Amino acid sequence: MCGLLIVISFIACNNPFAPKLNNNKSISFGISNQKSIDGVFKNFSYAYQFKDTLVYGKLLDDNFNFIYRDYNTGTDKTWGRQEEMYVANNMFRNIISAELIWNESAQQIGDSVLLDVSRSFSLKLEINPTDIINIYGRAFFRLRRNTPEDDWKIIIWRDESNY
């Protein structure tokens, strides 16, 4: 009887809905290892699809900056990591679903610790069943890591889309 209780307690501690870590430190169910650029963009899409601010936050460097063009004023606007997390959290809370698809990289320039990447994307945001927004655009990213063994982090995201 005591053995059965121990087995049940171990089973009860496993959450069947939580992703598990595997030996190479990536998480199953779509979360990738950020030691590759492909892994960064897979995690980006995953964070949007599952509205996961924890995964999203791990993509962003402490010195992250988001830059976009304000076409009303004809100037570039920017905000940092804290504001980006606030914006992302509000977006995730106020949509039913998001589907972010990254197209092939148009350009990748850099080395094993600093890389500039330009990619086009499509983003579908379902605000409610009758309000669906489709966005097609291009983004420039600067990613860095301290050593080739570290995870890549986004330090600059410039939205180059023309809405």
Total count of domains: 1
Write out the strand line-up for the largest beta sheet, numbering strands in chain order.
2-1-6-5-4-3
The multimeric state of the shown protein is single chain
Q: Can you write the helix and strand succession as a string?
A: HHHEEHEEEE
**Sheet with the most strands?**
6 strands, mixed
Integer-rounded radius of gyration: 19 Å
The total count of helices amounts to 4
Globally, the shape reads globular
How far do the termini sit from each other? 66 Å
Number of strands: 6
CATH architecture: Roll
User: Helix share of residues?
Assistant: 25-40%
In terms of structural class, how would the helical and strand content be classed?
Answer: alpha+beta
The CATH topology, please?
A: Nuclear Transport Factor 2, Chain: A
CATH hierarchy class name: Alpha Beta
Strand content: 35-45%
Mean pLDDT: 85
Enumerate the spans where pLDDT stays under 50 for 5 or more consecutive residues: 1-28
